[in-house]
Design goal:
13% strand; Helicase, Ruva Protein, domain 3; 3-stranded antiparallel β-sheet
């Protein structure tokens, strides 16, 4: 039996009534009781927990860490700061907070601040209620319209967030500048009874952060000398990257003190979770899924590249390596295989190890390099990450060549190395399946090696592992490898070294 969805579970008791309730009198007669947004979140979270429903869908790997912290913060009625490196689902978590809101809430019609009809807040709402009494018009606000998000940038002003005096309004309404009705409210007051999110909080200038002090604590706002006591009802959520604390800005201490819960996010802690995220987020066309089959082994290699990048000496670890790297890499890999199939007029194809060379653009744009990495260049670093992944994975499948060298034993790779001492092969990126097999089967004992250590594979998977064996041997300096624009060449290790030296001298 399937569990109810969060939206089905959290349906407002007034959902049916709201179609007919149009005035304050009707609202009072319905028995509606005002509730703060934090009480909404708390009550609906409790309902979800008691029913075994997770309102945060598509959030993978946080079940035992981040999500329990969020639940505790909501139960405590806290404002929240999600602190973590890029690509850790901070914004997605914030946006899904609306899943815990009631389906509909009543507001005074025409109100800028989403005024609760039973607790009017703004001057407009108070005047309208006083004038029309029980005939005050009511409208209904859906939970999807109760989410406000602002990206913090250095050019954000207090007027943007809090508000300012509007001279046009003063002139049109013939009001004095001392009249609070001349105020044009900013995003924060307009987010009354909503979830309000500020992304990348440290990028806000300190003087702008100061403007949030009283709103978070006491509910006061000050605009051009107007001291307004507005009991704003807002669920604040902030996101921040630890790198910002040292590079671009910081969250000032008094503001951090007012944010009651700071929750640390993290990258996937296992290869399986990382792969699950990639499979969920990769945007592939149905035609691609039908035409290209990606073996689990290649998917695993893509995830390992991200883990390798998070340990690389060339990558700035303070900046982090986003989960978007593996998502983009997987999409590039599928597109590379699809492109080859289109060129060769093949209806279906299996992704190859060589297709991983196509993910370099997905890597170079997703990692921040330290000085040494900048000196080598992003493409070099991407290929190095790929090579290191091959080097570490190879001994998990095939015998480590170093073991035979140290113990002076006969190596299972002897025939291969002897053959490459006098021969070389070129694997074109876009070669047909027939050409691909012809080249790989031309290397003596390579097929036997794969059959021995990778038994039970189909023909196409065996070819894939034969290619992987060559890449692994090259990374372990058993044979040579040269990566070209449209192909990969395998040859004797010494010839490969001399070729690289010639290329460096020519450059």
């Amino acid at each position: 039996m399937s569990r109810p969805s969060c939206h089905v579970l959290i349906s407002n008791k007034n959902e049916m009534k709201q179609q007919s309730i149009k005035t304050l009198k009707q609202l009072k007669a319905s028995g509606y009781v005002s509730k703060s947004i934090k009480d909404e979140l708390r009550d609906n979270l409790i309902a979800c927990m008691e029913s075994g429903v997770n309102p945060f869908t598509g959030i993978i790997g946080f079940d035992e860490t981040v999500l329990p912290d969020i639940q505790r913060a909501i139960l405590s009625g806290h404002s929240i700061n999600l602190l973590g490196l890029r690509g850790q689902a901070k914004t997605r978590i914030a946006r899904q907070m609306t899943n815990l809101l009631d389906e509909w809430i009543p507001v005074i019609e025409g109100s800028e601040l989403n005024d609760d009809p039973l607790k009017p807040l703004s001057r407009f709402a108070k005047d309208l209620t006083e004038e029309k009494g029980d005939d005050t018009p009511i409208t209904w606000l859906h939970r999807n319209d109760r989410y406000v998000e602002k990206l913090a940038t250095p050019d954000v002003t207090i007027a943007d967030l809090i508000g300012d005096v509007d001279p046009i309004k003063a002139a049109n309404m013939k009001l004095s500048y001392s009249d609070e009705r001349v105020i044009h409210f900013g995003l924060v007051p307009r987010s009354n009874r909503c979830v309000f999110v500020i992304n990348e909080l440290p990028d806000l200038q300190p003087r702008i952060q100061v403007s949030l002090f009283n709103i978070l604590q006491e509910g006061d706002i000050q605009i051009r000398g107007f001291q307004l006591r507005l009991d704003l009802d807002i669920q604040f959520i902030f996101t921040a990257n630890p790198e910002d604390y040292t590079n671009r800005g910081s969250i000032i201490t008094p503001l951090k003190d007012r944010i009651q819960s700071q929750i640390l996010t993290h990258y996937p802690k296992s290869l399986e979770l990382s792969r699950e995220i990639t499979m969920q987020e990769a945007k592939l066309k149905d035609a691609q899924r039908e035409r290209v089959k990606v073996p689990g082994f290649i998917s695993e290699l893509i995830e390992l590249i991200a883990f390798e990048a998070r340990e690389s000496e060339y990558v700035d670890q303070k900046s982090g390596v986003s989960a978007r790297l593996t998502i983009s890499a997987y999409e590039n890999l599928v597109s590379a295989a699809e492109r080859r199939a289109i060129i060769n007029k093949e209806k279906t194809t299996l992704a190859r190890i060589g297709d991983l060379m196509s993910i370099v653009p997905a890597i170079t744009g997703k990692v921040e390099l330290v000085y040494e990495g900048e000196q080598e260049g992003p493409a070099f670093v991407a290929l190095r990450l790929l090579g290191n992944t091959f080097r570490k994975k190879f001994p998990q499948i095939f015998p480590n060549p170093e073991t035979f060298k140290r113990k002076k034993l006969e190596s299972p790779y002897t025939a291969i190395t002897k053959w490459f001492a006098e021969n070389e092969i070129e694997l074109l990126n876009d070669c047909t399946q027939k050409e691909y097999a012809l080249v790989l089967y031309g290397v003596p004992t390579l097929a036997d090696l794969v059959k021995k250590y990778c038994p039970g594979l189909g023909e196409n998977e065996r070819l894939m592992m034969m290619e992987f064996a060559l890449h692994g041997l090259a990374e372990l300096s058993v044979i040579g490898k040269s990566v070209m624009d449209s192909s990969v060449e395998f040859s004797d290790i010494l010839n490969s070294m001399f070729s690289q030296d010639d290329e460096e001298e020519a450059a």
